[in-house]
Amino acid sequence: MATVAESHLVKASAIRVPGSAHKKRLIANLVRGKKANDAMVTLKFMPQAAAKDVAKVVATAIANAENNFGMNGDDLFIKSIMINDAPALKRRRFASRGRSVLRLKRYSHIHVVVTEQEGKVA
């Protein structure tokens, strides 16, 4: 008797990646719910610099699934992808008349969860 394979949730994350979370969320919304290989192709050809950071974490999640859990990379899809704000570095930019203006160097956390498509027979 064939049973439905127990789907594992495989996680990967990158902490304190330079760049604002808002810009990375725009990229993440495009690949959420897609097959992992299709998402990698989409991210590879996007002109935004944030796509490279998201692609690295998705590639890590795929590698974790293949190497640690023996999953097939072609059956994986992105179940969830979250981009959160990280603490920002506060720097000063000196202005005229002896003033200074606060400048924030923003960072973000990227969390990706992949799993095999449900309904596959083991």
Question: What topology emerges from the helices and strands here?
Answer:
Elements: E1 10-18, H1 21-31, H2 36-44, H3 50-69, E2 76-94, E3 100-116
Antiparallel strand pairs: 1-3, 2-3
Helix pairs in contact: 1-3, 2-3
Model description:
The protein contains 3 helices and 3 strands. With 122 residues, it is an alpha+beta fold. It has one domain (10-116): Ribosomal Protein L22, Chain A (Alpha-Beta Complex). A 3-stranded antiparallel sheet has the order 1-3-2. The protein is elongated and about 65 Å long.
Summary keywords:
3 strands; 122 residues; elongated; three-stranded antiparallel beta sheet; alpha+beta; 3 helices; Ribosomal Protein L22, Chain A
| Strand neighbour order, sheet with most strands | 1-3-2
What's the CATH first level?
A: Alpha Beta
Our Rg estimate from Cα atoms comes to: 19 Å
- Largest beta-sheet details: 3 strands, antiparallel
* Oligomeric state as shown: single chain
First-last Cα distance: 10 Å
| Name given to the CATH architecture | Alpha-Beta Complex
Residue windows where pLDDT falls under 50 for at least 5 positions: none
In short, what is this structure?
The chain is an alpha+beta fold. 33% of the residues lie in helices and 37% in strands.
